Amino acid sequence: MTAHSSVPNVKLLIDGELVESKTTQWRDVVNPATQQVLARVPFATAEEMNAAVASAAEAFKTWRKTPIGARARIFLKYQQLIRENMKELAALLTAEQGKTLPDAEGDIFRGLEVVEHAANIGNLQMGELANNVAGGVDTYTLHQPLGVCAGITPFNFPAMIPLWMFPMAIATGNTFVLKPSEQDPLVTMRLAELAMQAGVPKGVLNVIHGGAEAVNLLCDHPDIKAVSFVGSTKVGTHVYNRATANGKRAQCMMGAKNHAIVLPDANRQQTLNNLLGAAFGAAGQRCMALSVVILVGEAQQWLPELIEKTRTLKINAGAEPGTDIGPVVSCAALDRVSGLIARGVEEGAELLLDGRNPQVPGYQDGNFVGPTIFAGVTPTMSIYREEIFGPVLCVMPAKTLDEAIALINANPNGNGTALFTRSGAAARRFQEDIDVGQVGINVPIPVPVPLFSFTGSRASKLGDLGPYGKQVVQFYTQTKTVTQRWFDEDEAGGPVNTTITLK
């Protein structure tokens, strides 16, 4: 596909300049509610991508020496600019990704929280000191930046996840090359422009666009020291293996199959509302979406009310007021979700609510699929084994809490889980026995605030350090230990010490 003049071309950001790509390979950025082409994004040439890395490597020489207070002040300015431009950013995000305007603002706000955290870098990047560990000897640690780091981000959170990555990497003294999703890069580019406006020096942040070739270049380039990834398990596993084989640090947040357990003592209305929001919000296109609900004992009697509440959700374009569920991101995504619903029926699940082919007046060309509920789901079915990434909820029964915990622990993924109950004893047993990285108690999407770190586990994560929070400061820095002794000018030299012991 070649670029046309009728719609704008998305630029590259290289060495502080927005650059028109010289590529011959372009992809349309499409509004999923209307199929309108909003822009065309280039698949950058190898020369352009190498130029972005070279710019970051050159900028690192001076950026790593920039005082920590100067770095922090940039992010104080940046968070202010994001707040001032929130409505514009949300409108861009909704147009290209499809989620509702309130959800788009939430996407940006959760990223904004990490920007605010980055402004606190002076407290986060402090080392440790042990005084007089031996005669006149002190030992202390420095947390120094690695160099050029890279980020590869998915389509479903085109504001939040880039903001998870480059602010913390840059605040810790690194430079960065970002590759956003080619499906919805417009809001990401606007955020990059605001970062430059906030004072990020040229070359410290660079943005390239592309597909598999861009991903592989970031994994292979010798000047890149660390790679952060959020996306599918297939691509994340490839990124982790390729990047680490090339001697890089890598953190990869990947696929999920998140469960909630509902005990009969839970607050009924609050629980049902939470289940609906977590299962069907963002059209199910969240790695932390709630895709399986396990109703324990008498809570199984809540299923008819769950279905009736679900029927009240409004399907429409994300920019329309009062919308609960917008379109999925692409025609291919719609086909995949619809296909998995059909397989669920073929494999024997009971389709209690079929969201396929909803009628959305004024948006007949949109990629819409309504909320869908299956019962009679077993662990061998495709709708249980695969991450659907659509508004599809699997309902499963269990006799006891222990049976429900065993079912969750048998699933290979470990991103998020939740328990709804009034029992402190049940909640404590659940949080102790469940083998999942992020646990919610009466909280359906337990993504931690930036004071902590995203902690998905097992098949949902490769690498031992999560994005943002305290863990990511470790990921983006190298610990250097300094052991020093200063001799008194008048002190007589002692005997030669041929042991390894400090005295």
Automatic annotation (TrEMBL):
Major enzyme class: oxidoreductase
InterPro entries: Ald_DH/histidinol_DH, Ald_DH_C, Ald_DH_CS_CYS, Ald_DH_N, Aldehyde_DH_dom, MeMal-semiAld_DH
Annotated keywords: NAD, Oxidoreductase
A Pfam family per the record: Aldedh
Domain of life according to the entry: Bacteria
EC number: 1.2.1.27
UniProt keyword Oxidoreductase, yes or no: yes
Any GO BP: thymine catabolic process
Protein family (similarity comment): Belongs to the aldehyde dehydrogenase family.
Entry-linked PANTHER family: MALONATE-SEMIALDEHYDE DEHYDROGENASE, METHYLMALONATE-SEMIALDEHYDE DEHYDROGENASE [ACYLATING], MITOCHONDRIAL
Database matches in NCBIfam families: MMSDH (TIGR01722)
The protein, known as: methylmalonate-semialdehyde dehydrogenase (CoA acylating)
